[in-house]
Amino acid sequence: MEFLARFFRKGRYFDHIMKHGFAAAGLALALLSVLSMMAITGARILSGEAIPGLRFAFLGGISGFAATSVGALPAMALRSLPQRAEDALLGGAAGMMLAAGVFSLLLPGLEAGAFYLGGKGPGAAVVVAGMFLGVFLMLGIESFLPHEHPKSGPSGLGCERFDRICLFVFAIAVHNLPEGMAIGVGFSRGDMGIGIPLTAAIALQDIPEGLAVALALRSAGLAPSAAVLISAATGLLELLGAPLGVALSGGLPLAYPLGLGLAGGAMIFVVSHEIIPETHRNGHQTSATLGLMVGFALMMVMDTTLG
């Protein structure tokens, strides 16, 4: 035991944790909260209690995976898109994610929090707490999962052990897991007015994202079939995240607004920290911003008509 303690005190893992102390503490808090809420839901399932949204969450996760796969298919014939068009498409995806986070997650979370706690102030506090848990979760994953940003290069614990393609795929996984969790949270109480527009928005933005991933893999030297298959496979993270989202918020009543806040915070973090900087790094800020506005407006209309 003393040897292991000395290893972690002096080894690179301990050094990495110390270097990213805030992210490590936030990740630990977020994981503890998430696992606690999932344990409560697991106890309900073991007791024989039905979880109403589980089947719909699986279907929503399948929709996200299918949309990612469909989006990747044109890469069989295309090797690249004009950079301006790609940035505009990703901007549109960012706008849909941003609107989904606000209209399909945070606003319903505020309503649910006010209902369960008997007041708007306490309800808002729970949702805000959930938002920051989502931010801590994504910040921790971003700090410790090996991945690569196009501009800043490889980052994360042990990134030197993986090649550029693996790191890029890991980065996409960071995007897709919270999207799947958001779908699961949206369906966790069987509310179609939240789950359906949220799933539709995520699936729509998965199409340009799947294409962008496949084209990036092709530009890295992969064969068209391999690029499409790997891009489609990243959508499996949404299928995995959907039941996790149900487990996250299907326990105590208070877990529902907390889970909505967590999923919304995680999605907004990804949009601001990952997607928007990526669409702006090539000098096409106007096209990307117009794409974001169109995507936001589209999701807002969908939420109004389908919700």
Features:
mainly alpha, two-stranded antiparallel sheet, 12 helices, 80% helix, 2% strand
Can you characterise this structure?
The protein contains 12 helices and 2 strands. It has about 300 residues and is mainly alpha-helical. It has one domain (about 55-305). The protein has a two-stranded antiparallel ribbon with strand order 1-2. The longest helix has about 35 residues, at about 85-115. It is globular and about 55 Å long.
List the helices and strands and how they pair.
Elements: H1 2-10, H2 12-19, H3 21-46, H4 54-72, H5 83-117, H6 120-144, E1 147-149, E2 153-155, H7 164-187, H8 192-219, H9 224-234, H10 236-249, H11 255-280, H12 285-306
Antiparallel strand pairs: 1-2
Helix pairs in contact: 1-2, 3-6, 3-10, 4-7, 4-8, 4-9, 4-10, 5-6, 5-8, 5-11, 5-12, 6-11, 7-8, 7-10, 7-11, 8-9, 8-12
Structure at a glance:
The chain is mostly helical.
Q: List low-pLDDT spans.
A: 6-10
How many domains in all?
1
Class from helix and strand fractions: mainly alpha
Our measurement of the CA-to-CA distance between the termini, rounded to an integer number of angstroms, reads 56 Å
Supply the number of helical segments: 12
How much of the sequence is in beta strands?
under 5%
